């Protein structure tokens, strides 16, 4: 589905710094810094700018610690920017957390929204009430998500009894339950086998065709199969590349088989530039 040219996500010189307390290398230093603390500043995100249109799908790739999760937390309003601005659906996420949450979906690959000891359907019922989804809309959305992600057979199974792939499919369904216009996915396929990844890729591609904006962060190049429109490469909090997959392959000098080597090349070019 062609995407709307109007931007739905706009980040301008977006930065997030953290102050980390120094411990000291020996007992004397530790005692001294306990009395008089010293800190260093970590630039998790440093002057990143981009805009994403409604219905566009973006793969946000980088090595672990590059700044991917920090970016998503800023876009969702979980973190407040140290500098710069960000808007999602015309709102500053950290100033309008409730309004933003109703219009976005968020899935963190290492966390689950499922109620651990309760059947899967209880998690859906709870989230439906939290988002105040109308009964007919809730029923239709649940039916669609059950069919597409094959979670119907899991409906009465306690979450703790699900496999990793089953939990991931249920979490994806919960993320899309309230018809968000923008969805942020942080490492959605981590730890999954090939068949589970294929089913999730097909589902996300179907949501793209429905006009949902997809922002997928990953350190796995295989996840780029899920997105077709655009790739952004981040390293040490700085955006090194923003373009199509074909452009990335061309600049990388061939197939994208090793993210670490690709990052090193772009990082060297950025330093030379």
Q: Would you mind describing this structure in some detail?
A:
This protein is of the alpha/beta class. It has a single domain (56-80, 91-272), classed as P-loop containing nucleotide triphosphate hydrolases (Rossmann fold). It has helices at 27-35, 68-76, 97-103, 120-130, 135-149, 164-176, 194-209, 245-252, 259-272, and strands spanning 7-21, 39-53, 57-61, 83-88, 104-108, 182-186, 213-218, 230-235, 238-243. A six-stranded mixed β-sheet has the order 5-6-7-3-8-9, sandwiched between helices. A three-stranded antiparallel β-sheet has the order 2-1-4. β6, α7 (194-209) and β7 (213-218) form a beta-alpha-beta unit. α5 runs antiparallel to α6.
Walk me through the topology.
Blueprint: E1 7-21, H1 27-35, E2 39-53, E3 57-61, H2 68-76, E4 83-88, H3 97-103, E5 104-108, H4 120-130, H5 135-149, H6 164-176, E6 182-186, H7 194-209, E7 213-218, E8 230-235, E9 238-243, H8 245-252, H9 259-272
Parallel strand pairs: 3-7, 3-8, 5-6, 6-7
Antiparallel strand pairs: 1-2, 1-4, 8-9
Helix pairs in contact: 5-6
């Amino acid at each position: 589905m062609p995407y709307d040219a109007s931007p739905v996500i706009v980040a301008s010189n977006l930065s997030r710094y953290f102050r980390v307390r120094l411990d000291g290398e020996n007992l004397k230093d530790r005692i001294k810094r306990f009395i008089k603390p010293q800190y260093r500043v970590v630039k998790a995100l440093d002057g990143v700018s981009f805009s994403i249109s409604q219905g566009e799908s973006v793969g946000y790739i980088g090595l672990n610690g590059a700044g991917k999760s920090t970016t998503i937390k800023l876009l969702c309003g979980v973190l407040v920017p140290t500098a710069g601005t960000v808007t999602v659906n015309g709102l500053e996420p950290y100033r309008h957390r409730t309004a933003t949450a109703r219009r976005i979906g968020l899935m963190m690959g290492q966390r689950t929204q499922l109620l651990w000891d309760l059947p899967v359907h209880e998690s859906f019922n709870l989230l439906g009430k939290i988002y105040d989804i109308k009964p007919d809309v809730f029923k239709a959305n649940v039916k669609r998500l059950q069919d597409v992600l094959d979670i119907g057979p899991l409906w009465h199974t306690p979450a703790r009894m699900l496999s990793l792939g089953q939990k991931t499919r249920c979490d994806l369904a919960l993320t899309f339950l309230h018809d968000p216009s923008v969805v942020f996915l942080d490492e959605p396929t981590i730890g999954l086998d090939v068949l589970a990844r294929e089913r999730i890729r097909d589902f996300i591609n179907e949501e793209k065709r429905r006009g949902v904006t997809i922002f997928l962060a990953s350190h796995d190049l295989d996840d780029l199969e899920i997105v077709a429109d655009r790739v952004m490469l981040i390293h040490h909090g700085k955006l090194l590349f923003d373009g199509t997959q074909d452009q990335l392959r061309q600049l990388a000098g061939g197939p994208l088989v090793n993210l670490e080597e690709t990052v090193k090349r772009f990082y060297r070019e950025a330093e030379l530039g």
